[in-house]
Amino acid sequence: MPHGQCRLCDVESSLQLSHVLPAFVIRWLRESSGTGHIRTGTSPNRRVQDGPKRYWLCALCESLLGRSEDQFAKGLFYPYIKGESSQFVYGEWLLHFCVSISWRVLQRYKEGAALKDYEPDAAARIAEAERTWKAFLVGQLPHPGPFQQHLIPFDGIEAVSNQSEILSPNINRYLMRTMDTDIVRSRTTNFVYAKLGRFVILGFIHEDRPSRWSGAKVHVRTGRIEPRRYTMPKEFFSYVNSKARREAELISGLSPRQAEKIGEAYRENINAFIGSDAFIAMKNDRRMFGEAAFILRGPAKEEL
To answer: Which residues pair with 231 in a beta bridge?
Structure first.
């Protein structure tokens, strides 16, 4: 186990191998796949058993983040997917969990080249957001201030009343089941994007017109997740749709051998697959698009 400075509390300690995104989401994806196997768009020719991990945290900070993870899993994630209620009351744990996800995703993108082309002002805002989220997580700040967290619950699409763009034919599979991360930046907005199955977490770094977003803000003390009107820029759904299309394009890169292995897994586990969450998501796409649910279309993406 390596020794170094914890990225959260800055204390020199033995560092734990921490998940960037919660391990329970990966477990759920496997268990609800109907075959016991999952693949990612970035490496479709390889079965995935776990998500990305890093030596970032000391044992105390790993435990600190783990507590709000457990509360999110038990208090919202699993009950929402199982349809146990239409209304979920949350406590302080939800904001802590969402901030921890945004902070961890930001750490991951800092390791690559994604943030190297940011102008000085934009880079300064990212650094301030990171400091604020970090201070909130360890209890040094009572709230994340302007660097808000929004939580958007998704489910299958029943119908689209005003389809102004061509939907990706795997849109239900993406909305209901995918794990995904990104850093989104345009002329008017900048946020961390994290998708955990049915839930999207947006960690805002900058937003010129905050009134464009309403209904999804996570409050400091308590609140409710329930059916309501969510207001957001139409370009955001175009962005999500483009993410679904990109996922489908990457999965289409399966080798013939791996495609056959997937077919074998379905045939061997047909009884478990029928009725599984993966089957329901696929059935929703088939209902909306017919055979086109398995045919790719060209890219489409709008700027936020």
So the answer is: 214
Sequence spans of domains, the chain: 3-294
> Does residue 181 contact residue 195 with C-beta atoms inside 8 Å?
yes
SS3 121: helix
User: What b/e readout covers 73-85, taking b as 16+ CB neighbours within 10 angstroms?
Assistant: bebbbeebbeeee
* Sign of the torsion formed by the C-alpha atoms of 286, 292, 293 and 294: positive
Residue 228 Cα distances to 87, 174, 200, 215, 286, angstroms: 10, 21, 16, 7, 27
Q: What is the pLDDT of residues 156-173, one digit of tens each?
A: 887 666 655 689 999 999
Distance CA 283, CA 188 (A): 37
Closest Cα to residue 144, out of 204, 58, 212?
A: 204
Instruction: Tokens for 80, please give them.
Output: 């929402």
List, in order, residues 6 or more apart from 204 with CB less than 8 Å away: 146, 147, 148, 149, 150, 189, 190, 191
Q: CA-based Rg of the chain, rounded to a whole angstrom?
A: 19
Q: Is 202 helix (H, G, I), strand (E, B) or coil?
A: strand
Closest CA to 118 of 238, 205, 7, 239: 205
Q: Check: CB of residue 183 under 8 Å from CB of residue 109.
A: yes
Longest dimension (CA), the chain: 56
Q: What is the pLDDT of residues 103-157, one digit of tens each?
A: 999 999 988 777 888 899 999 999 999 999 999 999 999 999 999 999 999 998 8
Between the alpha carbon of residue 257 and those of residues 39, 41, 153, 192, the distances in Å are: 14, 17, 36, 36
Would you call 214 helix, strand, or coil by DSSP? strand
Token reading at 224: 């409710």
